[in-house]
Amino acid sequence: MISALESRAILADPQRRENHSNQRRTGKIMKPNAITPKINKATGLAGLLLAALLPVSQAHANLVNNGSFEDGNVGFATSYDHPPSGTLGGAGQYSINGNPKVAHGGFASIAPQDGSLMFVANGAEDQRMVWSQSGISVLAHTNYDFSAWLTTLIEGDSVDFEFRINGVKVGAQYSTGETVGWSQFNTTWNSGNSTAVILSIVDLSTGAGGNDFALDNITFEQSASAVPEPASLALVAVGLSGALFSSRRRRQAGR
């Protein structure tokens, strides 16, 4: 028998009321504060769908910091000199601006490939590293696309470049061509056992005159082939939805 006081306490506490009802039905005593955990299958299946979609959003992220130079003269290394005035009076100098002609009167006037800023260079007389970035984490045995946009700044003169990952040339030697206008270098690279990379772009041209160029919109990201196709994701979603529907039908049938 339970006292009147305890009876009122049971009625006031839903959990104790349920436990008391179970005790009367089964004869088993349950602790007043014992709670039987319940798994929310809908939430669990939604979590699986989210887990399937999450790598896709990460895969399309550009791993290069400030690749479009919109943050200014930060986030990269270079062997070129940066005059505080932004005016390029000698070979082997660069500026971050929105119009090459502002940096050097002899350069062509061209808008950035994307955004409002770009890397503008008065080429050096020796082969130098134009741009480099380190500390980029990658997944092993995964394909990545390395790309950048370049243009000569002197009509009639072409500038040659080499792209490197961890000090090793990737893709073919790249030339801007002799016409002022943006063109894109792009190559696919497999990480193998690598989990971190150093990206670099080297100017192979050595002429003091005409070896002038602009660089913009550098990207390094997982290849599209490494990302699940939308149709595959749709199949995942359909499968999880079917599992959720079946789970609900079983719960309803058991009531």
List the helices and strands and how they pair.
Blueprint: H1 4-12, H2 14-26, H3 41-59, E1 93-97, H4 100-103, E2 118-122, E3 128-137, E4 143-152, E5 160-165, E6 168-175, E7 183-190, E8 196-203, E9 212-222, H5 230-253
Antiparallel strand pairs: 1-2, 2-9, 3-8, 4-7, 4-9, 5-6, 5-8
Helix pairs in contact: 1-2, 3-5
Summed up:
This protein has 5 helices and 9 strands.
Counting helices, strands and paired strands, the structural category is alpha+beta
Strand content: 25-35%
- Rounded average pLDDT: 81
From the N-terminal CA to the C-terminal CA, the straight-line distance is 31 Å
The Cα radius of gyration reads 31 Å
What oligomeric state is this? single chain
Low-confidence stretches: 29-39, 47-54, 228-238
Helix-strand sequence: HHHEHEEEEEEEEH
Described by strand count, sense and barrel closure, the largest sheet is:
5 strands, antiparallel
Helix content: 25-40%
- How many alpha or pi helices? 5
Sum up the overall morphology in one term.
elongated
- Spatially, the strands of the biggest sheet line up as 1-2-9-4-7
How many DSSP-defined strands?
9
